[in-house]
Design brief:
This protein is α/β, with parallel strands linked by helices. It folds into two domains: about 150 residues, 3-Layer(aba) Sandwich (Rossmann fold); about 180 residues, Lactate dehydrogenase/glycoside hydrolase, family 4, C-terminal (L-2-Hydroxyisocaproate Dehydrogenase, Chain A, domain 2, Alpha-Beta Complex). About 45% of the residues lie in helices and about 15% in strands. It is globular and about 60 Å long.
Length: about 350
């Protein structure tokens, strides 16, 4: 077992997703069974009691890997020496709030958090933004951390969308989720995202497109299902869960965040996964945007690497470009606020 614990900071730690994260991180699900952790729980003053209660429960679990827990509402205390930051807390859209209002409200959250990470986090820090609008919140945080922290240390969560896509395919094809590899989520974590199966394969060597054609009757039927059912359902799954459950995704979002960090830290295995990472111009995405792309990790200090050279047909390109256009519009709206 490593002797020095890894400091992990969770923002919005008193909320539901934060609560779902804490115990799995302390149990070793995120960083493995031989890496002790130190947890820093950041909350706003109104959420401190909930976070303090979670800290008491963590103590009661007596996790062997959990070195200590600190609850704070101070940014510099929360991010001091942190190596992994999960930025969960965000301002949700309220009644009558326009997207520009939402971006402005979250700039007031993620700008100061990024600045604090730049000022006091560990040299090896990596941060993943969970709170929506996640891609642009990550862009804001990265810009605010510069020049002390490289922008590519920040990413945003599209692993939940990736997992939702895999789950939908597994259900239709009657296979296990582990039998499906190389699904991609392109673009923004929003309703414009493009869940792509053009490169996906099954464990038996068949392409997912081939398997869908066999299951649904022919290639045309498979394409119709992808366009009319699969893509909209993955993109709008969060709204579906709210309608059925009465509240937003919690456990699945926490699980995806843990998997995002685990794969970045310990390495991906079969095929690639999806993450919103800083573009350097790959696939025509404007440089600097935080865009969901196919990625792999070797579990080293380089983190996620973008898979390059994949081809698009016209249908896929149009969907991808529409999502990138939305990211550009969000970036420009934030620039107009003077944040970037």
């Amino acid at each position: 077992m490593a002797s020095e614990p890894t400091t992990v900071t969770i923002t919005g730690a008193g909320g539901q997703i934060g609560y779902a994260l804490l115990f799995r991180i302390a149990a070793g699900d995120m960083l493995g069974p031989d890496r002790p952790v130190r947890l820093r729980l950041l909350e706003i003053p109104q959420g401190m009691r909930a976070a303090e209660g979670a800290a008491l429960e963590l103590q009661d679990c007596a996790f062997p890997l959990l070195h200590d827990v600190e609850v704070t509402d101070d940014l510099l205390t929360a991010f001091n020496g942190t190596s992994i930051a999960l930025l969960v807390g965000a301002r949700p859209r309220g009644p009558g709030m326009e997207r520009g209002d939402l971006l402005a409200a979250n700039a007031g959250i993620f700008g100061p958090q990024g600045a604090a990470i730049g000022a006091v986090a560990a040299d090896d820090v990596r941060a993943v933004v969970v709170g929506n609008p996640a891609n642009t919140n990550a862009l804001i945080a990265a810009a605010s951390a510069a020049p002390d922290i490289p922008a590519d240390r920040f990413s945003a969560l599209t692993r939940l969308d990736h997992n939702r896509a895999v789950g939908q395919l597994a259900d239709v094809l009657e296979v296990g989720p582990g039998d499906i590899a190389d699904v991609i989520i392109w673009g923004n974590h929003s309703a414009t995202q493009f869940p792509d199966v053009a490169h996906a394969t099954l464990a038996d060597g068949r392409s997912v497109l081939e398997a869908l054609a066999e299951r649904l009757g022919n290639r045309e039927a498979a394409t119709a299902w992808l366009d009319d059912v699969f893509i909209p359902r993955v993109a709008k799954r969060g709204a579906e869960i709210i309608e059925v459950r009465g509240s937003s995704s919690v456990a699945s979002a926490a699980n995806a965040a843990i998997e995002h960090v685990r794969d970045e830290q310990l390495g991906t295995h079969r095929g690639w996964t999806s993450a919103a990472v800083v573009s350097r111009g790959e696939y025509g995405v404007p440089e600097g945007l935080v865009c969901s792309l196919p990625v792999v990790s070797r579990g080293d200090d380089r983190g996620y690497r973008i898979i390059e050279g994949l081809e698009f047909d016209a249908r896929a390109r149009a969907r991808f470009e529409a999502s990138v256009d939305e990211l550009v519009a969000e970036r420009d709206a934030v620039r107009a606020l003077g944040v970037l």
